[in-house]
Fold:
Amino acid sequence: MTELLPPSALPTFRDPAGSLEVRADGAYRSLRAPFDAEILEFLATPLASELVSQGRLVASEVVSPASGETLVLRHPRVSFQSYPWEWSPAMWLAAAELTLTLCSDLVEQGWQLKDATPLNVLFQGGRPVFVDVLSIERRDLHQPIWLAYGQFVRTFLLPMLAYSRLGWPLQLSLTRRDGYEPEEIYPKLSWSSRVQQPALSSVTLPSLLSKRAKTRSVTTRAIKDTDLAKHILLKTLKSLLSQMRKVTPAHSASTWSDYAETATHYSDEDHTRKRKFVMETLGKARPSKVLDVGCNTGVYSNLAADAGAEVVSIDTDLQAVDRLSTNLKGKEKNILPLFVDLAYPSPATGWENRESASFLSRCASHFDMVMMLAVLHHLLLRNQIPMDRIAALCSGLTTRDLIVEWVPSTDPKFQELLRGREALYEHITEAAFREAFGAYFTISDELTLENGRTMFYLQKRLDA
Structure:
């Protein structure tokens, strides 16, 4: 199987305490002295074992001793790596909740997180996992200030505030590794928003005091009473959690977020037959990893997960993805919902464009089945991608199986997307579909519904 990250991906290099390199059999973390001894001390605690057993903290295995050479830890790989710019608001909130509650549990036991960024969190299905063990350090018991407070505000709270109050996309985090400064957001907020929490404490006051703060050195004052210091620290974390929950909007209706319930171009019989076709195909193919392109709110992603597959579900409608994310909370479904447009997938980014892998490179040879239900006509008409290019991409996305729903030109949804361009797209026919996809796949099964749409189960050609 191709590695999750391309061979040219850089090991992490920003943390002075160590670096991380992702390989086929795990993520290998090298630790530098004196940080290695502290991490080993933490990993030996009952708290560390408890956090790992709860699935909140990534497991760590020592693969080389600390004495005489660099300490190396091996972490199991999360099946499919995702980034904050691909997350829905519900996933941002889940990552923030994990960060703050994990830090609170650490504080109770004399530890803390020294940094707090969404990039420290990955998702296993819909469940967030904290993966940066180097962020954990011994806490100064007399220190009531959380030094990572500012980073949490910049990278978690302010992006969500800008999204909910100003409509700034969360996807801007792609180029904002350290988030936003309060002074960037303050001028854009209305006066009423500026004086309401959480903007008052996280944007307005810091902005008004910024000139004074820049002329003074940052100092933290220790206090003698260790219980009071801990109480203040825990209260800070609790307040941040409350602010993050308050500013994260509930998912709202959109063009596609209620599609599964409101689609009128399927009869009840068509819905039943389509669902049965997918279920039977999943039963025959028994895929282990499925990519559901155009997942909407996850009806067919759930079928694949119930059939035993790990599912990555992508859609261009953020509200539909957010609804799926919310519905997965508390459920043991191995479904990872992501806000990704296959026509404009997440690019490689970071230093030398090698720190964060592109979506397509993460997909390479990872999935043994791809589902594209009622998606093909969008790529053909809305995105103007030629049929042969789509077929080639599908061949690269799956190692074995493909389920495609063909929507004919007579379909009302096809007609909506034509917008008077019938002559330009008259070449888009079922015969053209069969020919283009036939270069990479063979048809194993097909079913035409009463509405004229056809379900295809395709298997990858050995010579493709």
User: Anything to note?
Assistant: The chain has three domains: 18-75, 84-247, 259-460. The chain is about 40% helix and 15% strand. The CA atoms of residues 319 and 337 lie 11 Å apart.
